[in-house]
Amino acid sequence: MSTRLVVSPHFDDAVLSCGDTLLTRDAATTVLTVCGGSPGPGTPPSEWDWQCGFADGHQAAEHRRQEDERACAAAGAATVHLPFADLPYSGPKDVEEIAAALEPHLAGADEVWAPTGIGVHEDHLATRDAVLLAAQRLAIPRLNLYADNPYAGALGWTTPDGERTGTLRWSDALASMPAGATLGELQLRHLTPARAAAKIALVREHASQLASLGHFQRTLTWLDGLLATEAWFVCTVAAKAVVG
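Structure (tokenized):
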């Protein structure tokens, strides 16, 4: 059986953006979370984690790691958690450092998925750029860049980009693609109600996020809501020589 690696910036991004892909068990799948680390015990919670009911950042990370393991197990996928902490518990990400940590995992994968960076969250952009850098070094000629939910589908999948607002504009992420990466046409897959329900069941494993996410996206867990569509670009990657 072929192998599939889905690279997720945070614990919930893989299931939100390509949960149906995880459930398509035509490959041995691993979900690798880049921001799988934890700030130390007693670290004051971020505003988001406080809204989600956590007393400190360490508690939030540990709880979400367990949620991720349950969701991936339900999808039949293995998990890998890299030690980087998410914003705002860390400073800006070092793309080179993340790429070096990713390379052993990308090297053995037949199929690679990574975020496009829609929503221009710094962790998502750093994850994308690190995957592309590692792919260039390993001469991986193509991979799939998934549209990051809930940002990507927040204003509808067919809304012209000029009508999107703020960080929900796709063009901001697409304009920041690193040199050597070329995107093909957008691919869309509309899920049947049964497949949408199966995906939403995975998302519900990330219960600590849902109340806050649902506050901004009321249709998040509807069978015909934004999660019922998955979108991605096939990305071709020019090989990059390693110097030194």
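The helical segments are 13-23, 47-51, 57-75, 95-107, 122-137, 170-175, 193-204, 207-216. The longest helix spans residues 57-75.
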